[in-house]
Amino acid sequence: MHTPPPRRALCAGMIGLLGGTLAAVPGAAAPHDADRNAAAGGQVAATAGHIDVMKLTGTWERYGGAKLDPRFTAAAPVPPPPLKQPYLAQWQARQQAAHEADLRGQPPFGGYAHCLPDGMPAMMMAMFPMEVLQTPGQITIIEEAYNQVRRIYLDEKQLAVDDAEPGFWGHSVGRWDGASDTLIVNTVGIKEEVRFRDAPHSARMQIDERIRLLSNDLFEDRVTVTDPVYLSGPWRFTWRYVRKPGYKILEYVCEDNHEYEDPRTGAIRMRIGDPGAASGGSAPPGADRNAAAAGSAPAGSAPASPRP
Fold this sequence. Notes:
By secondary structure, this protein is an alpha+beta fold. It is built from six helices and 13 strands. The strands form three sheets. A nine-stranded mixed beta barrel has the order 1-2-3-4-5-6-7-8-9. A two-stranded antiparallel sheet has the order 10-11.
């Protein structure tokens, strides 16, 4: 049975992965996984055949690792965001600076250390297992990490972007395409400080998804992010998930966080023992509150996950 690591260990582990994830800072987006999947769509459909869409209900984890279904590959890594200039150059500079800070053992203080949830679309990367529930008029997705809950309202008209209350998970509506057994979802209203891969976005950003079962025990989510302000074109990527039979989603509350932001360097520091003492120095006044409170760092800014 999967047991989440201690909350401070998760934060440290995720920041520790920055080095591997940020080692390469490409100048242009890689070929989209969704495009490659589209080319292979006929083979996938022929393999899967008709599948009861109600089988989407259940507990799932990200597909990958050693036990792969020979019919289906793991999803390709998420490509860099196709940002317009000067946003692309600024994003690359932040990625490089974060990588160098990590190599120095001074990872920057980000959303996870703030105990902030991923928000959309990052919660769909399934850092920990997630549960899908289907009820009349609604599909609910529960991500174990940070107790994130997302609701997709079926067969409803989407809100105008200006009318959507900004939030971590936004406002999602969806419909089933019977011809392809695909759940087509549109999401608007993501807070501008909620960033995936630390990519900036505007209030005009929209997230479109095509969710479908590839087999009784495998489903995929093809994601397309558009933003007329920051992106030069669609940002496409795919996540795949494998069923995790019998798994019960655990409570995850980020209350045991001993990390705080160094006021001089902006790096993560950790309190050990007495609340007034921290490794390498003293915690500033209010560090206990700051460690658990939301701050200015973008949510989900650490771009990697500790799970395979």
